[in-house]
Structures are given as C-alpha cells and as structure tokens.
C-alpha cells in the first residue's frame, strides 16, 4: 500500500525542505503525481475596487488556457462555495456539467476548461500562517481524485509553503508594509484618530499620517478605509 | 504536461481511514456545534495520538501583544493547570510562529520520552520553546474562515504520531477550529442586526468609494448614504467609519 506520506518520505524525497522556486515546482509536480492530478495552479486572490484578481504563484497550466478563460474566472473558481478549507471535505467543480455550475462559471468558460484538459477541478484553500492561498488541482477526466488523499495533500501544501514565506511574499505582495506602518494601520482599524495613534505610539501626528499615507500608497488604495479593508482581507491583521 | 500513472496505489489508498474524523460534519461549512461537542472531538483526537492533555488557544489579534488565549481544554469548563501555565507564559514565540507558518511546532526537554522521539522523526515540524513546562507536546497552528488564528496543543510523555497521521490530525484540528470559531462569530453576530442597504454601503466604503460615489452607484442621495453609514457604525459600536468597516470585515458580515 502506498500512502502519500510514504511516497513523499522515501521515493520522491519530497520531505526535504523547500528553499527555492525550483524546489516548489518540483514539490507541486510530485504532489500531483502522488494523488493522480494532471495539473496544478497555486494562486493568491487580490480584491481590488469592484473585482477580484489572482496572482499566480506557480502553475503548470498551459499559458493559453489562463489567457482564454481569464484571471477573473480563476478567481471565481478559487473563491466559490466548493473551495474547501483545510480539514473540510473537498468537493469537485465538474466543468463537463456546466449547467450545474451557475454562479461559479459561465457556460463558455466551463466548456473551454473542459476542452483544455480541466474536466474536473478541486479548489483547495491553503493557510500559510495568516496568509491565504488557493490550490487548484485538476484532472482531464472527472472522478479521478480521492477526497481523503486531497485533504492530506492540502495540509502537506500548507506545511511545505510555510517553508518559503519570502517566495510567496515576493509573488503575492500581500504584506508590503513596514512594522511601523502596520502598527499605525492596526490602530486606525481599531477606530483611533491620528492624534490618538500618535499618543499610543509616542510619535507626532505628522509621522502617523505619513506612515498611513505610505500604507495607502503601497496598497494602491484610494483612502484610509480601503487600506484598512485591504489589510484585513489579506490577513495582515 | 506530463501525465502521471493513474492506477497503482490509489485504489488501496481509497480504502484508508478518512482524515475528516468520525464526528466531523462532513466538511459542511456553517454547521455549528456546542463547545462541549468541540471538547469531545478534541478528546478523540488526543486519544488517537495518545496525548495525556489537550487545549485549544486563540492567538490574540493584537499585534502589540502576541499571546495565547485559552478557549477550552480537557477539564472544560474548568481550566487545567497545564493550560494555565501555557497561557501564563504568554507563548509569544509560538503565536509569532503561527502568524506566519502553518508548520506544527513541538517542544521537549531532554529527548528521553517516546513523544520527543516521535516528534523529532516528523519531517514537517519545527522545534519551539517549551509551552507546558516539564512535559513534551506538539501544537498545530489553525486558522478560521475570518482570519482568526489559533493553536491546538497536545501534550504527554507517550504520544504516538508518525508519517501522514500528522497530516490527518492537522486536518481534523483545522476542521475543529473552524467549528469553534463559527460558534464565536455566531455569538458576536447576535449583537448587530444590520440592514442589507447598510451592508451594501459598508462594503462599497471598504472598496474605497467615497459617500458621493456610493450614493451614485446605489442611486441614493449623499445624505442617505451617510445616514446608512452612521447607523451601521452605531450598531457595530464603532467609533468611526474605518472602525465600522474593520469590525464588519472581522465579523465576516461581508468578504
């Protein structure tokens, strides 16, 4: 009997610690192989004004597929109700049964995905510390993957990605803030005024305002409220 | 794209024990359970890995003070001495770890116990500072739907934990924590009854729109939009607009 653990531990040597982007791709390829998935895509979802976008961390999808279906479709798949939190039973999105997917995918996108080798997609939510990512694992033919093995693979990914936080941060840029900026923004989110934050941190009001302004710029937010919302949404605090 | 082999171990793998746990609500989000149910589920996990004690902690959301806030342990509704010690020590290192990493972390002293040998053999675990003095143990970082962060810790001298059993245990911890944090947010949710319109205004504010822009997109007057924002801030017991948006997001009133 081959289990995921044994395969990782011995034959593929994937228990080794990840350090580089190459290690990460190697890990994801071997993970697919171990559970029988054809493709993977690791993304972070970014909310911007009125739409969702994705930052692709790693993927072996054919590039044209992503171009054809668009980032918004990928974001919709990642965020749909079928996306499993770690420890929940994963549920498949079967693109071949497009009518059943009203609200997740348009019929045209579903058909494209099916034709391009993604007959069934599992969206798995990953937690790497407070940072949230999504793993899309797909097979050409539906019904190939075992939910229990997927759930183990999901935890495996959370563990493995925890070893390369810098790599993730470089791609997703979810926490571009300095310690001081984060602190200021945190107090602003607690309803404190500039003067109150200045008092709490023992700096001048001008300094507080400049930290907050920098935070707003880094998030390309339009104002304080949006910067606070972005920080909460991306799990910075 | 390479096409991996599709037979072999998978059929055998299908017959293996499910990681979701006998009592898990089959991964259905929104299923709530009582704290007593949660304690029972946690006890089952502890039994499976032969841990003497267990505890669930929330990591304090404040960035200033990284500390562990006990939620329940084996002696629920009382608090066990071990949990008290762990919380008293603050667990600053372990909370900082959990904010940036999902790797399980373990502690021990001289390496003489069966538990420590089992932990040292795990390929995906990090050693950390002692959480419960004098007794080796392991803590699994866990995260809720709304970005809540916590740790489920098990300790004892004779624990068994090997290979992908650690993955299953961690999966069950995640599922348990999701259920526990859902109880919490349901309790919090009892307070405000925010109308649909107020929620729409709050959400648009979070997306960076000004009152004028909100009024235009919802076809309201600017005065009404402001009125909605003021009343929602009052209901959320928030001091200003930013605070109201932050509270609503943390309560999970919208994404």
Task: Tell me what you see in this structure.
Chain A is α+β, with helices and mostly antiparallel strands and about 240 residues long. Chain A folds into 2 domains: about 170 residues, Transcription factor LuxR-like, autoinducer-binding domain (Beta-Lactamase); about 55 residues, Arc Repressor Mutant, subunit A (Orthogonal Bundle), CATH 1.10.10.10. In chain A, a hairpin with a 2-residue loop joins strand 1 and strand 2. In chain A, helix 8 packs across helix 11. In chain A, about 50% of the residues are buried. The N terminus of chain A is likely disordered. Chain B is an alpha+beta fold and about 260 residues long. Chain B has 2 domains: about 160 residues, GAF domain (Beta-Lactamase, 2-Layer Sandwich), CATH 3.30.450.40; about 55 residues, Winged helix-like DNA-binding domain superfamily/Winged helix DNA-binding domain (Arc Repressor Mutant, subunit A, Orthogonal Bundle), CATH 1.10.10.10. Helices cover about 45% and strands about 15% of the residues of chain B. Chain B contains 10 helices and 6 strands. A 6-stranded mixed β-sheet of chain B has the order 2-1-6-5-3-4, sandwiched between helices. Chain B is elongated and about 70 Å long. Chains A and B meet through helix 1, helix 2, helix 6, helix 8 and helix 11 of A and helix 1, helix 4, helix 6 and helix 10 of B.
